[in-house]
Amino acid sequence: MLTAPQFLVPLMQAPVAVLGGGISGRAAAKLIEKLEASVVIYDQAGGQGVEEVFQANQHRLLVVSPGFELDHPWVMEARSAGLVCLAEIDFASLFWRGEVVAVTGTNGKTTLTEFLSFALNAAGRDACAVGNVGNAFSEVVAKRDGGAPDSIAICEVSSFQAEALHHFRADAAIWTNFAEDHLERHQSMTAYFMAKWRVLERAIGGQVFAGSSVARVAEDYGQSLPESAIIDTEESAGDILLRGTAFEGQPQRENFILAAAWWRAAGLREPVLYAAAQNFAVGPHRLARVGEYGGAVWWNDSKATNFHATEAALSHFGGKVILIAGGKSKGGDVAAFVERIQSRLKHVLLIGETRNILATLFGAAGVSHQSCADLAEAVRRASEIIEQDDEVLLSPGFSSLDQFSGHAQRGDTFVQVLKSVIFSS
Fold it and tell me: Which helix (H) or strand (E) holds 356?
């Protein structure tokens, strides 16, 4: 049976406020109700069972979804009113009885989280993937009554979640890589780095593992990593045992190297990890081959919502690619991004809010390009210019939230247009 830590008991005598009516917020509400406390969900977007006007004076405890920034007016109002404010992942961690392995990074963290959970279950351990992976920690804690002492939560932690951590504790922390992202929220690379650094700080007494790019930039931001924490994820030789798996080449090779580093440190048998790799499939919208049309192969990498992810996807191909790119800006140096990828491109179809600035920059670089009203037009135009052996890649490099509810809807739309309009013609 779940019981609240002593410091929370008096705070939960009043209704608990939850900010956010999405996955994390509603999961936190379920956990609060399981604790036999009352809860009020607030969200300006509205929705069933959601209040749109925040009433701080009715509460003593506030649980905040990661979509709410630390300086959001409601969060500031709650603090001014003396409420204790906890991030959803922080709140959930107070009730988890098992181990926690925290995973963060600019890219690859979802795949690594899912793979470690998959491999541990294959090894006969009770493991679950939680956090930013789409399965809120609060949801799992509520369903499992806090988990068993030998359960392992592989917890993906985004920078939005990490910046507010206070109670969360990890038995180990893995940081895949670091590159430009989320500057619309963190305002600077330093702030973005330090938000993620908090994940390593929460591995109190545990082990930490960091990929090559993290090690390179840590010193620039005034931080140092122990030598044992630095894992060479970029220059290591290929592994014949991974041939034919999702981890055969980059960018997924980096994930396996980090998984193996933690696996060995945990005293687990490496053959089991390699066997799991043979049976593991990466999630949808991650450099997935959709099919062939007109002699060209079409790829869905809609989950590429930042520059680093698109660059990693392009490195998968030997020749020049027809790229579909663009979306909602997340900050960052767009000109530098264009400069880095221009030599890899045969043609670019541009979509979303950033299509005009991208058209200007690709035009200045002499890269053939077209601006499109939407993704469907981009797919149609690509189908008109493809030649034998072309590779057509949706890897936007930007957020999907200007035209879609998320990267999954963007990827689904891409596949739907291909299958219903292009492949069937």
Answer: helix 355-364
